[in-house]
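Lab notebook, bench 4. Continuing the backlog of folding jobs that were queued last week. Each job is logged with the same field layout so the records can be merged later without manual cleanup. Today's entry covers C2H2-type domain-containing protein, a 177-residue chain. Filled in by technician R.K.

JOB TYPE: sequence-to-structure
TARGET: C2H2-type domain-containing protein
LENGTH: 177
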Amino acid sequence: CQHCNMCFTDKYSLFEHNKFSRHYVCGDSRCMGRTFRSAVGLREHLRQAAVHREYDHAECQRCGRQFTSTHGVLLHLDMGGCGTITWKWVLERVRRRDRRNIYVDPDVDFEVIRREPCWATGTRCTTCGRSFKNIVALNQHLASPAHQPRVLKCPVAGCGSRFATFSGLAQHIEAGS
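JOB STATUS: finished
OUTPUT FIELD FOLLOWS
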């Protein structure tokens, strides 16, 4: 993190850090990590800055947070960034609308999908071994889809790729994989 000189092993950890440390950072590489004092400042930047006008802005319908793409909203939902809903809540709604079972595996019993026991010691998840800076970050990890089954599937015939998150599926499709 260029704002507090901390190092992270992956993008997910940096994302979690930025969310909990209240860094309001423009994620567009053309803005070179520009930081804002508040969410309102970042929202105004995304709305008004010329560099972002080419994007279709997307907004989380539950909390009103603004993003530069639909993929950003998906990542926000996948990572528990919207405190008003859970990953399972979103997944259940997608399943209801996916009547032809294009995206969601029809063989998965949604009543069985629960957070797997992910017991932690201190601030380390014993399921995956990741360590966290504080208990808040660990709890966020435990509430995320990190240990969920891969119930989402690529709609391309013959692909067979499966995903635990909507953002992962979207990235796969956008990449043309």
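OBSERVATION: The longest strand covers residues 24-25.
SIGNED: R.K.
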